[in-house]
What we know:
7-stranded mixed sheet; alpha+beta
Amino acid sequence: MLIYDKKDDKVLIYEMKGDSEKIKRYKKGVISKNKVQDLFCSLKTNSSRAAKDFDTLEEVSLATIDHDYYDPLGPNDYSELRVIEIRKDILERYFYGEYDGILPVSVYSYDDKFNKEYIHRFLKTEELEEKNENFLRSWEFNNLIDLPRELYLLQLLLLGKYDRVVSENIRKQLGLFDINYLKSISLLDLKDMLENGLVSGSMEDIENKASIGGRILAKRR
């Protein structure tokens, strides 16, 4: 993946590539250090809203996916999030990078002062499973990995979501990547390429990406 920086009147382009062995060791180290007992979870629901939100949104409220209450619009709705046994085979696939291209789902709730806090960051290792038993529909998400915060930040880096981590302490995670300079393009040339439709976006978009990339790269230096 590419990351950008700005110097004088040029945009510098770098390639940022993860070292698979370093990343694997780091993942294993974080899991071992945290001694995570509730690493794997499952979600089972008969609420189409809960299933759709968890399947499509990047953030979802805990109250949406974990509830058991009377609702006059859906009196028999349930949605249960529960801890399950660790699947060592799936965990190994995670260590080896099989799920590195998946964006986690963040689950939040509100504290007593109505401050938003994130309590889960789920990596969906399996597709949504729909069931229909006796004309009753339900949905299941099995073998969700609840990523510790360090691994969540690593996942965002692997996905190139630099804007999400620019304000975070990610020095350790950045050390897992090789960063190589590729080339530079003048701002004047970029402006000409935009005007002729050779690239999409705007100069503001480009400069914003370069600004964020520069701050990320500065954490590595």
